Automatic annotation (TrEMBL):
Pfam family, one: ABC2_membrane_6
Organism expressing this protein natively: Kribbella sp. HUAS MG21
Protein name: ABC-2 family transporter protein
Keywords of the record: Membrane, Transmembrane, Transmembrane helix
Entry-linked InterPro entries: ABC-2_transporter-like
Highest taxon in the source lineage: Bacteria
Annotated transmembrane regions: 24-50, 56-74, 112-137, 143-164, 171-192, 225-243
Amino acid sequence: MRTLSRTGVLLGFRIRQEVLEWSGAWWFLLTLVVQAVVAPLIGLFVWSAVYPDDPAIARYYVAVVLVTLMTESFEQHTFSERIYNGTLSHELLRPQPVVVGVIGMNLAIRGWLTLLGAPIVLLTGIALQVGFDWWAVLRGTPYLVLAAVLVFLWTFLLALTAFWTDRVHAVVGFGSQLIFLFGGTAAPIGLLPDTWRRVAELLPFYGMNGLPAEIAAGTRSGGSLGYQLVWVALLTGIVMVLWRAGVRRYTAVGS
């Protein structure tokens, strides 16, 4: 309990530090916001044209934009680069888990993206006259929290490949495309052919994006939190194994 309390305090300090540091880079943060919302907005325009009389499409994609902003992760930049330039050694010598700094920066960037992207979500909703059932939005909160954890674990897992390859950006880019295709951004999962829909609902990517958006938009009354929790447990286990193997390789090389 004392260790958890100390870790929580350290995480709070790190988030505050990162929020202040990133406050001077708001132009760069705006480019990240634009990058994050482009794909969901394209999906919104395409599927709204296909189903012009279905208000659920617009509601779903507005929710996807917000979920994307609140769950974006950039560990291939914020963590992998430290492996490449050797500054990870400094983090390893600190009397705190390295992941505290990684999570602190992740949450600070997500906070800024949500704040800067909120006007886009609001204007899109007003322009399309999208209305939400706030009880459904509240019901979607735990799914959103688990989605944020899943996206972080997935991106961090792929970022750990920097211990073995210098092509981490290609690896993470491939992983992001899987989220785009099977997560519900390219198309709502319910509109996919049955075989592809069943496959998508088994993979973790649907829990990273489409599931919380569907719950918040009210197009799905409920889902299985257990499905997301199983993937959280599985990805956490894989991350821990890769982290230990990666640090052993890193220290053996003498970086």
